[in-house]
Amino acid sequence: MQLQLALDLVTIPEAKDLVKEVAEYVDIVEIGTPVVINEGLRAVKEIKEAFPSMTVLADLKIMDAAGYEVMKASEAGADIITVLGAAEDITIKGAVEEAKKRGKKILVDMIGVKNLEERAKEVDAFGVDYICVHTGYDLQAVGKNSLEDLLTIKRVVKHAKTAIAGGIKLETLPEVVKAQPDLVIVGGGITGQADKKAVAAEMKKLITQGS
Ligand SMILES: O=C([C@H](O)CO)[C@H](O)[C@H](O)COP(=O)(O)O
Q1: In this protein, which residues make up the domain named Orotidine 5'-phosphate decarboxylase (predicted)?
Q2: Report field, pTM of the whole predicted structure over 0.90
Q3: Fewer CB within 10 Å, N side or C side of the chain?
């Protein structure tokens, strides 16, 4: 089980400081969608250049033109790129094809997918690397989480790794770990804490113990 740090509400210099602070405890650094919207793929490039040994995920949430967008994110230095599960089949297959050509990985974000079980099976057959259940900020605000969805995809996904994102905190992590995803994605649960290093260290400990 791995830990991914999601950087969403930060500038590039703030992102660099955060990565420096918690690097030893995280396996993957995510350049979040809001950062890409604000700063462009330059954010991916700068983080990869500053931390060359770190696995960097570009959370582009691709919905169309995946071949081109995966190509651009790869050129910027992303190791993993996200595509939406709600996208057309041809889009997700195009993302996988381009990523494979470049030695990169695709994470499919199932945010907003209603027929989760059926879609997860379909997406799994396209050869994607990760399938991620995700409660976005808007549903987190009305008290939702993705635990049940994680159990659903764990039942039906046979090839891809499983991941979970959305509002995970130190207090809720033990329950998540119990469900055994391959990847746990945490944003505000680390970046919003006073002692980020201590929280990241504790999270890494729980994840290592539970693996
Ligand atoms: O993907 C995300 C969100 O849609 C904003 O782009 C976040 O990275 C993801 O939800 C993890 O962040 P937290 O919910 O703060 O843990």
Answers
A1: 2-203
A2: yes
A3: C
Residue type, 176: V
pLDDT band at 159 (very low <50, low <70, confident <90, very high): very high
Contact 129, 102 (CB under 8 A): no
* Arithmetic mean of pLDDT over the chain: 98
In which band, very low, low, confident or very high, does the pLDDT at 1 lie, cut at 50, 70 and 90?
very high
Ligand 1 atom with the shortest distance to the CA of 109: 1
Find the CATH number of the domain harbouring 107: 3.20.20.70
Beta carbon of 7 within 6 Å of any ligand 1 atom: no
Mutate which of 4, 107, 137, 149 for ligand 1 pocket (most atoms within 8 A of beta carbon): 137
Q: If you measure from the C-alpha of residue 139 to the centroid of ligand 1, how many angstroms do you get, rounded to a whole number?
A: 11
Note down the domain range covering 11.
Answer: 2-210
- Tell which atom from ligand 1 comes closest to the C-alpha of 7: 8
Q: What is the pLDDT of residues 76-99, one digit of tens each?
A: 999 999 999 999 999 999 999 999
CA distance 105 to 70: 10
Number of domains comprising the chain: 1
